[in-house]
Amino acid sequence: MKGRAKPKPAASNPRDEGMMRLALEQARKGVGRTHPNPPVGAVVVKGGKIVGRGFTAPAGGPHAEISALEDAGRRARGAELFTTLEPCDHYGKTPPCSIAILEHGVKRVVFASSDPNPLVNGKGVRRLKRAGVEVVGHLLQAEADQLYRPFFKFIRAGLPFVTLKAAITLDGKLATGTGESKWISGELSRARVHALRNQVDAVIVGAGTVDADDPRLTTRGIAHGRDPVRVVLDPKLRTAGNAKVYTERSTARTIVATLEGAQYPRAEALADRGVEVWRLPGRAGRIDLAALLTRLGKAGLLHVLVEGGATVHGSFLKEELWDELWLFVAPKLFGHEGLTFSGLLGVRHASRVPSLRIASIDRVGEDLLLEVLPATAASP
Question: Would residue 17 show up in a list of annotated catalytic residues for this protein?
Answer without folding.
Answer: no
